Amino acid sequence: MVGARAVDRLVALVESDAAPAARTAALRTLEAIADLRALDAALRAIRDADERVATAAIALARAFLRGPRGAFALDRLAEVAFDQARGLRLRLAAMESLTDLPASTLKPLWKALGKDPNPEIRAQVAARARGGPSPSRDPLEELAAAAEHGLADDPEALRQAIVDGGAAIALPLAHHLIERLREREASEPPGRRADWTRTRAAAHVALANRGSRLGVYDLRESLEAATAPLPVEFLAAVSRVGDASCLEAIATAHQRSSDDWWRRHLADAFHAIVTRERMTRRHPVMKKIQRRWGIPPARPAL
User: Fold this and answer.
1) What Cα–Cα distance (Å) separates residue 245 from each residue in 139, 205, 248?
2) Could you read off the pLDDT tens digit of each residue along the chain, which spans 302 residues?
3) Angle at 185 between CA 171 and CA 146, to 5 degrees
4) Are 155 and 188 in contact (CB under 8 A)?
5) Interatomic CA distance for residues 162 and 231, integer angstroms
6) Greatest CA separation for the chain
7) Span 4-129 CATH architecture
């Protein structure tokens, strides 16, 4: 795992005065990591005035609906769904996030929302309430179609399908999806490339969460080629499944960058691998890194 340090830093970023784009990115990363320590920050961020931040917080809270603190997530998500002062897109996102729950839980919510003054809310409820929740998209079908037949032009929808279905997708299919995503990134103009990179990062986390090393080569190449910070999910994945072959790429990225945030996360990932693989300074890779740069990336103090 990326570790306690990274989760704590991401939570701190979410709750800071940073720009909405940075806080949204932190929430998306925490969604991929799915560490329960992020739930409180998500529940507070759902009330954020910025719609991007609030929407990302809804997606993060959704990940914990079936966990030990699911009731807290349910209460806050239902609060947004019922709040007529919130934007329609945000209310619909909250409603969609609840569809993972059993019909017995959702029935009274849909009944109450069926009286909402907003016709779009009522229309959504009508589609879901008759005979239980409405048929929802199947993320596994979406992922299989993307891997086998090509990517649609919506990286965020695909990223959400990966988050929802990544725990069950066939591993070779997930690996093929990463290859397609990388090809798509390379063909996109710079302004759109970052969205596809985030989606590929989510696919790497899905593979790593399954203990698969199929994506290690792509992770290593991505770090070696990076000229700017990548989504931290890349480091979440490499921390979980990366091996000694990844350390030089991490060290290269660390030495190349002047971004303190990125360097801290790189150092965390480096030491996570070293610890997991039980490597010492006598290991050939460690000796090579020491010869080239003097010392390995230093783990920052809390």
Assistant:
1) 33, 18, 7
2) 455 567 888 899 999 999 998 899 889 888 877 888 999 999 999 999 998 899 999 989 998 988 888 899 999 999 999 999 998 888 988 998 888 788 888 888 888 998 899 888 888 888 765 544 444 567 888 888 898 888 888 888 888 888 878 888 888 889 999 999 999 999 998 888 988 999 999 999 989 888 899 999 999 999 999 888 998 889 889 998 999 999 999 999 998 888 888 888 898 889 889 988 888 888 998 888 888 877 656 554 43
3) 40
4) no
5) 15
6) 70
7) Alpha Horseshoe (1.25)
* DSSP secondary structure, 103-136, as one string: HHHHHHHHHHHTT-S-HHHHHHHHHHHTTSSPP-
Residue ranges covered by each domain of the chain: 4-129, 137-214, 215-302
d(CA 188, CA 183): 9
Give CA–CA dist 55/59, Å, rounded.
Answer: 6
Determine contact, residues 52/80, Cβ cutoff 8 Å.
no
For residues 296 and 268, is the Cβ–Cβ distance under 8 A? no
- Distance (Å) of CA 201 to CA 96, 130, 178, 207, 234: 23, 38, 9, 10, 5
Please state, as a whole number, how many other Cβ atoms lie within 10 Å of the Cβ of residue 248. 18
Q: Cα-Cα-Cα-Cα dihedral of 60, 8, 169, 21, to 10°?
A: 50
Locus of tokens 């991505």:
222
pTM of the model as a whole: 0.62
Q: What is the number of alpha carbons within 13 Å of residue 246 lying toward its C-beta? A: 28
